[in-house]
Write a structure and sequence with these properties.
The protein has 326 residues and is an all-alpha fold. It has 16 helices and no strands.
């Protein structure tokens, strides 16, 4: 018995019956030889961490574009915070931590520069629209490794795709990442907004903080404990209804008072059409799109251009925008 087989046996003995066992994964689109040390989900995690798209997350906006300060979140630190929250829940519920971590680390690989502002900008011009969860799947399936993709397991791909939107992930581990993403950005984006003086503590709805806690740390801990207590030994990830409603009320506050805040009007004006203009330029000058984005047979000009544009970092997109005189 090799190390991987021993670890698979440990999963079967130690994890909850509702956990997704690596031995019973639905597999990969392209079959490959199994590793003698790592389970399939551990390999997926490692492939994501070593990908170029993962490294670029450190230079992509979470909320504030080019903030003056070293302590604001980036897309990378958000991803790590989601992973930490999700892994805590998964371990507490005896679910598959490796699968949970792989999904969490990969969930935002397709996010644009300039955060939600960039996503909305591309969504206006890309045929069929642009959604970062779908783009994250494209990144790991078609874009990485010069168009060959990472050949991830079905379970990780499903969790990445369904971390947002109307569809639920196939696994409980995917559902954990879905809710952990919200817990992370609701609390950490509010924390960054406080640091930037976009809002004050007094602005945060009292009916939410009375239930969830006064600080991001307390709210995160409270929400994790509620999920664990409600979901223990159950085939679902469950929150107490009134606590869930308080969390979503805080989310609505965030969208109304931070993402659409008057203080960020300058950013919206300055960066609100950068990506669409870059996209349009490369669509008209398709020969300048790097070859690695054209490697997939049957790919359209529009999709290859969207892949290239969405994969840019903030600073690279701004440099191009200036150089091209857009």
């Amino acid at each position: 018995m090799n190390i991987r087989e021993r670890n698979e046996e440990t999963e079967l003995a130690m994890l909850a019956p509702y956990a997704c066992m690596s031995r019973f994964s639905k597999g990969r689109e392209t079959d490959e030889e199994l590793c003698d040390m790592r389970t399939c989900f551990q390999r997926d995690r490692d492939r994501i961490i070593h990908s170029k798209a993962f490294r670029r997350l450190m230079h992509k906006t979470q909320v504030f574009i080019s903030p003056e300060g070293d302590h604001y979140r980036t897309r990378l630190t958000h991803t790590l915070e989601v992973s930490q929250i999700a892994r805590t829940i998964a371990v507490s519920l005896k679910l598959n931590e490796d699968l949970t971590e792989a999904i969490a680390l990969g969930h935002d690989l397709g996010h644009t520069p300039f955060g939600h502002l960039g996503e909305e900008d591309l969504d206006r011009v890309v045929p069929g629209g642009f959604h970062h969860n779908e783009q994250s799947v494209r990144v790991v399936k078609y874009v990485e490794k010069d168009g060959k993709g990472l050949n991830l397991t079905y379970e990780v791909m499903d969790g990445i795709l369904n971390h947002r939107g109307a569809c639920l992930p196939y696994t409980l581990e995917g559902k954990i990442v879905q809710i952990s993403d919200k817990i992370a950005y609701i609390n950490h984006d509010i924390d960054d907004a406080l640091r930037a003086d976009i809002i004050s503590e007094d602005d945060i709805p009292r009916k939410c903080t009375d239930i969830l806690g006064e600080t991001p740390r307390k709210r995160i801990d409270f929400l994790i404990r509620d999920i664990v207590n409600n979901s223990m030994d159950k085939p679902d990830i469950i929150m107490t209804p009134y606590i869930k409603e308080a969390m979503y009320e805080l989310r609505r506050f965030l969208f109304d008072n931070v993402y659409n805040a008057k203080q960020l009007a300058f950013e919206r004006k300055k960066y609100g059409s950068c990506l669409s203009r870059i996209y349009s330029y490369y669509l008209e000058n398709f020969d300048k799109v790097p070859a690695e984005f054209k490697n997939n047979e049957g790919i359209t000009r529009e999709q290859a251009t969207a892949d290239y544009t969405a994969g840019m970092t903030d600073r690279f997109a701004l440099k191009l925008y200036d150089e091209l005189g857009l």
